[in-house]
Amino acid sequence: MIKKLICNQKLYQFCVEQKISKQKSKKGRNILLFILSLGLVQHYTKTRDYMSNIFLSEQEIYDLNKNKQLEINKKQLKYHEINLQKNKEIQTAVIIGGGIIGLSQALKLLQHGYSVILIEKEQFISTKCSAFNGNIYNPYLFNPLISKYSIKTMFDNYINPTDSATQRFSFGCLQEPGALVWLFNALRLSTSDSKFDQSIQDMTKLGQIQEQEFEKIKKLGLLENQLTAEGELSLYKSVEYGKRISQSFKQAGVEFTEIDKTNYNQHEIDRQLFNNYPYVIKLDKENNLDTKQLSIQTLKYCQKHYPDKFKILYGTEFNEFIMNYNRYVIGINTNKGVIYGNKFIICAGLHSKYIAKKLAVTLPIMPCRGWIIESELPENAKGSVLDKMVLKLPTLSITNLNNKLRISGCQLIDKEYKSDDPINEWGAQILIKQMKEQFNIDLDPQCISVRDCCRPLTPDDKIILSKLWFNKNVFVNAGHGSRGMSQCHGCAEIIYQLMQGKQKEEHVAFDLKRFLFI
Ligand SMILES: Cc1cc2nc3c(=O)[nH]c(=O)nc-3n(C[C@H](O)[C@H](O)[C@H](O)COP(=O)(O)OP(=O)(O)OC[C@H]3O[C@@H](n4cnc5c(N)ncnc54)[C@H](O)[C@@H]3O)c2cc1C
């Protein structure tokens, strides 16, 4: 039996016969059996998920369109009225997920002549990650959350837990679908200096595409009262680590300057801050941008300029794909009915993996929890770097937009959950403590709002921009980690190019092919 399954005489002899003839332990055989059974279970669940889609014959499609409903395998299918409003002359792209990524994708496709149907399961856009993040716009500065440095820190923090550790790992994450695939790929893709440098270079190239696209977006007037910071300061506790990171930036062509601290001794807050950090760099970018605001502006723009071509459906949740008997995706089934389209783009953040699973693809995306605090800018901070610049400290990031501070930080790789009491969790407590220690600012719990949110994190912290192999009209724009808003237009452009059949060299770094066992 094992021999047949392995299909390789030498491997069989090595793993099984050798061990048996020497009458040693059955460890090798057991490990093989374990791996094989894992493979079989994965194969079985993939087939089961794939087969739970809805397969329709020509006649059944005709019946559904005519009668507006159809019973198939004891499932009641409803025809969605949105299909009647479609212009058959132009291609329709169906986008699943109305966060900043789905909206940027919608704008890009509308600009290139597509008709777009965007579905969002909540009652409004950007109610998840795109509402609760750091609001830092920076398409270049990329310090992967998953790297040889952070993996080590996370495990150290796991073995010797301290209250102040800001990077953590919980074995609860193993309950997430695809967790082992994620873990395996994280160890494979993120544990060497060369992979670290490569990731920075890949993300810098994406940053360049983002910047080109962003220049066009600025002209559309989507950025009112945004980008008001004078630049971004990154502060490092250790000169050695700071120099290591800046060397990677230099190699990747990211422009920055090392700071002369004497320029920052005017304000008490600045003096105290700069005393604590021996190495500081500055990026001359205007980079505070409210992600939710940008989403709303993008939505309004699409509705105003493409009233016939753009449709958004709230409270509409993806359930499964509709395929014809050639296994070609022709539509999606939602809680509100069947929606037909020509192209489908999965932009559902963390939940993209549940959608891709239906097409037998394991997207290695893990929830990485973070906390954000919103507070008024204190009077005594006016005129300081807190007021004027975006700050990236090792433990937290801060932006100020229209006198509202957005403080974000902490990373906990865990299973997905939403806290009922985020202000009392360690992430928020660390941010409050850090504001006191670093800036001497007391955040009054009555006057702040606190949220926790899960970043969609891939094993190498690089985004997934890919066409699916077996269903070539389905695309994935997901796994943006901490860079979703900063890279949204670049990602939309790459997906558009993939949809046109163009796979440029710089796109390959973001293809699903970089992962194994998916
Ligand atoms: C603490 C923290 C700080 C961050 N700071 C920054 C920062 O400073 N700068 C930056 O650029 N990025 C930052 N990020 C990352 C950024 O917020 C995300 O990468 C980005 O918001 C992801 O956008 P999205 O549209 O993919 O996901 P989301 O905003 O989560 O949107 C996905 C949407 O899909 C919908 N959906 C899910 N399933 C379905 C379904 N079955 N059917 C229909 N709809 C569905 C959801 O309801 C949701 O609206 C931060 C993230 C965190 C957590």
UniProtKB/TrEMBL annotation:
Residues 93-497 form the FAD dependent oxidoreductase domain. GO terms for molecular function: oxidoreductase activity. It comes from Paramecium sonneborni. Keywords: Membrane, Oxidoreductase, Transmembrane, Transmembrane helix. The keyword Transmembrane helix applies. The chain crosses the membrane at residues 28-45. The lineage of its organism: Eukaryota, Sar, Alveolata, Ciliophora, Intramacronucleata. This is FAD-dependent oxidoreductase domain-containing protein 1. Required for the assembly of the mitochondrial membrane respiratory chain NADH dehydrogenase (Complex I). Involved in mid-late stages of complex I assembly. Signal peptide: none annotated. GO terms for cellular component: cytoplasm.
